[in-house]
Amino acid sequence: MPPNSKISDEHLSINVTDTDIPTPNRGGSLSWNNVTYSIDLKTKDDNGKPKSRTLLSDVSGEAKRGELVAIMGSSGAGKTTLLNCLSGRLGTGHLSGSVTLDGRPRNRKTWKKLVAFVEQDDQMYSNITVRETINYAARLRLSSSRYAKAEKASLTDDVIKSLRLSKAKDTYIGDGLTRGVSGGERKRTAIAQELVGNPEILFLDEPTSGLDSNSAYAVLENVKAEAIRTGRIVILTIHQPSNEILSLLSKVVLLAGGSTVFFGPVEDALTHFASLGYTCPARKNPADFFLDLLTIDEETHEEDTARVKKLQEAYRQLDQSNVPVTHPSEPKISMTVSLDALPGDSPEPAAGWSNNWFTEFLILFERAWLDVLRSKPVVIASFVRTAVLVILIGFAFWQLDKDQRGIQNRAGILFLWPINQVFVTIQPIVATFPLERVIMLRERSAGSYRVSSFYISKVLSQAIPAVFYSMLACVPLYWMIGLQHSAWKFFAWLLINALETTAAVALGFMVSSGVETVQMAMAVAPMIAVVFLLFGGNIINNGSLGWWFKWLHYVSPIGYAYRSFMQLEFRGLSLSCQPDEPCTPTGELVLQQQDLNGLSVWACAGILVALSTWWFLTGYVLLRKTSKPKMKVL
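Given the sequence above, the corresponding structure tokens read:
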């Protein structure tokens, strides 16, 4: 941010003219001309070709530095579609026209470094503070070769001060379980983490949605001040702004049915509509007046449609005449802008990554690990769950006897425990990417990091606590149950537990990468776990399986853990017999009867490693496919 930039009054309602903002050689304005966008429908015409629907038709306009340009219109008018077209966030459909930055076409490779996009859903990590959220964005987006870590921290503090977040900087973002910042502070934090990357252009989708009037005004007042201070272009969509918010807007783009009905200052819009016979009542909010003009109601469809077409045609003629509309001079403000510090004067950003892979990984792992450690309800619940399982299972199977009844009891606990490990581990992990996909796509669209660094950081941040809780439970259980007192068998028990838990983590991430919603993840995960349970080697004897089912046994981590545990416990175990009961005197006979010989403990360990690797890699491929940012640049 320019160190010598200032605004005379941070609470001032700001309006500026074009002459107020110095225009650098590059990035002075964003222009769009005759932008048309259509999508193919599933239905087909008589010739068998897909029918199409036009969402935008010949839309033109311009946004200059320091301006707040608002796209307005009724629902379905094309507001968000136009915003996505200008920001380059469209991945499908047919797009034509031109969008230029200071008269030059956009460069697909560097465009994402020049723009920032604040979505309507301002999802962030709930257990990270405001300052940490902004600082992580700075560390990920700003080049390490140009900015030292201390400089990124200083930029973070500058943005916090500019958006008046100083009082909330050490407060968690919060969610339904964790108390956090207010709605206005949350929205300003979402904007701040985009501004800290020093973009040329800031796009905002419904930034006032869900906020009260005071918070909404405060958010846009801060954005306006920041736009003037840095000479940044700001384009936003907004539905029904208040009079106070309208006073902050430099220009409005009024859309109806995907076409422009007016582009220019609010005062000029009122003058233009009045010349057509539509005068805004004295006490009516102009924004409400605009929406009334542009909305097509079902009950008055023909009348409203005729009015909208009249407005579209009137603006088309006005636009073609190229006659400037005169409007009253607007008040200026006292400010100083350093041309050397303007983002538009900076060199063309590099098309590559801001950090090397390892730096990305360290930053992402630090953030993910903090989020895990600070999730107090989850941490407490995990410890309580572990303690309850140890107490219930440990005392239910306390010091098992080495007799014939002990065979069933041992087989029962040695099958129950790997089942528990899979179910307990996989359930929370499958929700990871569906919950964080919005964050990931937003950060990936900004070119913040590679998929691989993000994926591995998430895997490690979830695998470490999963294995930790597994070890915390299986150490006391081994001695409470009374399994064989052998050092190598005890450590082999720990190893197989860790490997099976890791396999469950890998399976969870594979499912999480391949589904879009939490509901879908929660439906798929138990189904897979039940299949692995069924073919785990205890319920159905593996030797009796047909070839069409046997392959399921080969991919069951429960089966390999169960086989390993049974071999560790029953090999070398002597069992007592009563005179009046069938007798299986040795553990080796038990293994033979249940068809659990063959693969050794170490072979099972190797297969668990192979399954984990396979599922981790599959998860990465799926995540890479589903997290590719949409980008269509004219």
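The first strand starts at residue 6 and ends at 7. Try to locate this feature in the token string yourself.
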